[in-house]
Amino acid sequence: MTTANLNPERATEAVEGRRTFISWITAGALVLSAGLMGIFNLIFLRPRVTYGPPSKFRVGKPDGYSSGAEVVFPAARVVVRRRGDEFAAISLVCTHLGCVVNPTDSGFDCPCHGSKYDSAGNVVAGPAPKRLSWYRIAQAPNGELEVDKRKEVDSGTYLEVKA
Amino acid sequence: MRISFALLLSSLALIVVVVVVIAQSTDEEWRDYQLEYLDQAMGRASSDTVRQALAASGLEIQQDTLAGFEDTTRIDRCRTCHMAIDDPQFENGQHPLKTHPKMAGHSFSEFGCTVCHAGNGRGLTTYDAHGDDHFWPEPLLAAPYIESSCARCHPEPYLDETPHLRRGRKLFEKYACVGCHTIRGVSRGKLGPDLTDVGTNFKIDYLTESIVDPKANAITSIMPKFVMAQKDVQALTVFLKSRRGRQMFEDPVTLRIKTKEWEQEAARELSETPDAGQMAFDERFCASCHKLGQEDGKLAPDLSFQGLLREKEYIVAHLSDPRRHTYGSNMPTFFMSESEKKAIAIYLTSLTAFDLPAAPKEQYALLCSRCHGEEGAGDGLIAENLLPRPRQFTNAKFFNWLPEDRAWNDIANGVPGTAMPPFKKILSESQVQELFSWVRSEFLKSDRKKWKRPRPKTGANPVAYSPESIKRGHDAFQLRCYGCHGRIGDGNGPNAVDMLPRPRNLMSTAFMGAVTDQRLFESITYGIVGTGMPAWDYLPKTQRWDLVNFVRSLSKTGPAAPSNGK
Ligand code: HEM
Ligand code: FES
What we know:
The complex is a heterodimer of chains A (163) and B (566).
Chain A: H1 2-6, H2 8-45, E1 56-58, E2 70-73, E3 78-83, E4 86-91, E5 102-103, E6 107-109, E7 116-118, E8 123-125, E9 134-139, E10 145-153, E11 159-160
Antiparallel strand pairs in A: 1-10, 2-3, 3-4, 4-9, 4-11, 5-6, 6-7, 7-8, 9-10
Chain B: H1 2-26, H2 29-44, H3 48-56, E1 64-66, E2 74-76, H4 108-111, H5 114-117, H6 126-129, H7 147-150, H8 163-174, H9 177-180, E3 182-183, E4 187-188, H10 198-201, H11 204-212, H12 230-241, H13 252-264, H14 274-283, E5 291-292, E6 295-296, H15 312-320, H16 338-349, H17 360-367, H18 369-372, H19 396-401, H20 404-413, H21 429-444, H22 467-480, H23 482-485, H24 509-512, H25 517-526, H26 541-554
Antiparallel strand pairs in B: 1-2, 3-4, 5-6
The structure holds protoporphyrin IX containing FE and FE2/S2 (inorganic) cluster.
C-alpha cells in the first residue's frame, strides 16, 4: 500500500483493473462449472441400459444358414438373409403403424393395412411411408453373427463372411 | 476486496469439485476391462471380419435379460467385465478375461451367469457384482459349492457332473440328519428346523459353521456335534446350499400338489422279527449316533446289550416319543409304523450277550464311562448330548450328601426321566455296592462327613392338594424359582444355561412319578448340596408344602405320591 500513498490516482486504477479481472475469472469459473454440470446431468438422464429385449443379439454361426436362406427371429422381429457369402439383417416392423410383416416370395407383406415391400424392403404399395430398416450385422469373436438393432445401415449393405 | 477474493477462490474450488466428480463417475472399472479386452481380442481375432467388428464396437454395458427363472426378469451384467466368456481365443486368459468352459445346452443369453454362479447380476463393480457386500445374500459360489445351483433345475438323481452334491445327499441320510430335519421331498424329521429353504437363507460359511459347531449360532441348539471329515462337511454344505425352496421349473400349483402327496405318504409295515428289526436299524442309520457292536456314531448310548437294560415296551414307547421317558432327549421322532417300532424293539431286546469283567474298574469303563467320563467328571463321549447331564462323580459335595442307598438304587433301577438305565440285570446287589464304592474311592477323594444334627424325618403332606394351595404355590414359584426352573417349570429358566447340573425339568412325568412328596419337600427345604439348588428353609413351612403341591401339578402325575418312591 506504499504506492497508494505516493500516488493515489494510479493506485485506484490498479485496484479497478484487478477487480474486473477477478470478476471475470469468477464469472467464467461459475459459468463453466454450471455448463459442465448441465451437460453431465443431461447425459445422466439418458439410461445406459434398459430392461427391454436386448438390442444386440447373436443369431448363430454362418454355416447354420444355407445360401439364399431367410431366417426369421420372431422375438427380435428381424429376418437374417444369406446371399452367397454375404449376410444382412432386415427389420420386420412395418413403417406404417408397426405391425410385423410377413416374408413372401416377392418381398414382405403387411397384414394390417396392406403395405407391400420388395425384397430390399422398399415400399411398393400401401400406406407405409418408408422402407424397412436394415441393421448392422457383424461377426463376433466366437464366429457367431451379431445383429445390432441400434445401428441402421443403408439398404443393400451386406457383410461378407469368408469361410 | 476480500469478498471478491473469497468468491474467486470458491468458484475455482467449485470447478475443481465438478471436474473431479465427473472424472470419478466416468472412470469405471469395467471400462478398463473392456479396453483391455478389445485390445487383446484384436490381436487374437480369427479373421478380418471379426477385427472390423471389434474396431467398430465401443465401450458399453453388456446386459442379459433373462425370463423364466423367477417371477420377475433377471438382469445379468456380468459380461460387461467378463467379455471373453464366449470367445474361444481366451482359453488361457486371466480373469475376468477368460473363456468360460463349455456348457452343453446352456447359452449365456438364455441362462445368464447368476442363475448358477450367484452374485449380484446388476452390479457394475467387482465388489457389487460378486456380492462381496456383507448384506448381499448371494455372494459368488466357488467350486464345489456351485454344484448346488445345478440342483435348482436338475432334480434327483443328481447329475454325474455334481459329485459333491450327490455325496452330500447320501450323507444327509448317513448321518441321520433326516431324523431331525425336514426337507420337502427328502425327509420328514420334526425335531430340528425345516431345511427346505436353508440354501436361500444362509451363505456357505454359515452353513458349514452350523454343521461343524451347531452351538456357534444358537447356544441352546440340541443338535449333536458330529464327528465328521472335512470332506463330508463340504459335501453336506453343497447339498444344503442346493436347498433353495421351489425349484426353478416348478410352478406354485404343482408344488402344492406335490407337497400334499409328500406329506401323506404312508409309513411302511414290517414283519415283527429280529431280522426285520436289524434291517430297519441299518436303514434308519441308528448307528450314526448310537453304538452297536463295532459301529459307533459316538453321539448316543451304547445299544450293544440293550436286551439287558430295557424292556420291549420301553423301546417301542421311546421310538414313538423319545421325550416321554427322558425329557431332554435329543433323539428324533421317526415316522415309523407300529410294526417297524416293534421289529426294532424285538431286535434290540434280543441283544443280551455281555461278559461282565470282574474288576470294578473295567466294569466302569464298559458300562459307565461313555456317559460319566473316564475321569468321572460327567464329561463322557456322549455327555454333551444328554439332558439331564450325567452326574459328575468329582462333585464331592453332592456325593457326600447323597445317601448311599439312594445311589445304589439309582444304579440298580436307573433314574427315571434321564438316560441312566437300570443295571440290575447286569450287576448283582453286591456288585452295585462294590462298583459304587470303587467310584467313590477313585473320583471323590474325600470322605463323607457325619451330620452334626440329623435331619428331622419329614411327615405326610399336611396341606391338601387343592386349587387354592396350587395357586399359592404358583405365586411363590414365579417369585423365587422361575430364574432357574423357568416360568413353566421345564428347567429352562434364564439362568439354566450356566448351570451344571442343569435345573430339573419339573414337568417330566417320568421323573416326578418316581419321587415322593417327602423328597420334594426336603429338596426344597435343604436345597441340594453341590448343585445350584439353594435351601429355602426360611420360607414358612406351609408355603414349602404349597410349592410341593404346585410342582406336582406341573407333571401329569398329579397329587399321587408314588409308593415305591425314593
Ligand atoms: C454377477 C455377475 C458376475 C458373475 C457371476 C461373475 C463371476 C465370476 C467368476 C466365476 C469369477 C472367477 C472367480 C475365481 O476363479 O476365483 C470371476 C472373476 C472376476 N470377475 Fe466376475 N462375475 C460377475 C461380474 C463381474 C463384474 C461386473 C466385474 C467387473 C466390474 C467382474 C470382475 C471380475 C474380476 C476382476 C475377476 C477376477 C478376480 C479374481 O480372479 O480374483 N465380475 N467372476
Ligand atoms: S401397419 Fe403395416 S400397413 Fe399399416
